[in-house]
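SEQUENCE WITH STRUCTURE:
===
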Amino acid sequence: MNDPAAKARRKPVASGNGVPAAAIDQDRIRAAVREILLAVGEDPDREGLRETPDRVARMYTEMFSGLYREPREFLRKTFTQKYDEMVLVKSIRFASMCEHHLLPFTGKAHVAYLPNGKIVGLSKLARVVEVVSRRPQVQERMTEEVADLLMHELDARGVAVILEASHTCMTIRGVRKDSSICTTSAMRGIFKSNHSTRAELMSLIYGAR
């Protein structure tokens, strides 16, 4: 979480529903989408496309809302609890946007941590994944950002984050391998140093193999 550019762009100005009201320049997006339609040879004024620039502007406001929200806000309230075993939330669904082609990648996240005297509400782990996913990015960075954030904010003895996702930049264009799944992992603390703890995690997620 030491990316200066990332810190500079994340200025929480979210509206009541969590989507930035004024941070994203929707007028500029509308103009850009109209230019794209003209560039590919379409008529942006025909009935089917007339409202497309506005739809895309609203979609980008939603998909990129994580640029203006701070995921650590969901980890500020913790509970003192003498529990030193693994906490795992599996199959947290997410949708993000690949920064290379601005095409979506979707999948699920498995998030685990080993508490160090305090725990956090389970839904907050899903909230963190949701906010971090709403940014243009690569899956590798998203995996590490979630892991580093949890490790630091929860002062955990260990954190593990595994993401499995299908990337439309591979499934609908280029090599067009529609069954491909990208899996990334970030292990911190005991999950990285202790083989048996890591093996227990994999067994809980995937079962005995």
Q: What stands out?
A: The helical segments are 4-9, 26-39, 52-63, 122-133, 139-154, 168-171, 190-193, 195-206. Residues 82 and 117 are 5 Å apart (CA to CA). The beta strands are 78-80, 87-98, 104-114, 118-120, 136-137, 158-167, 182-189.
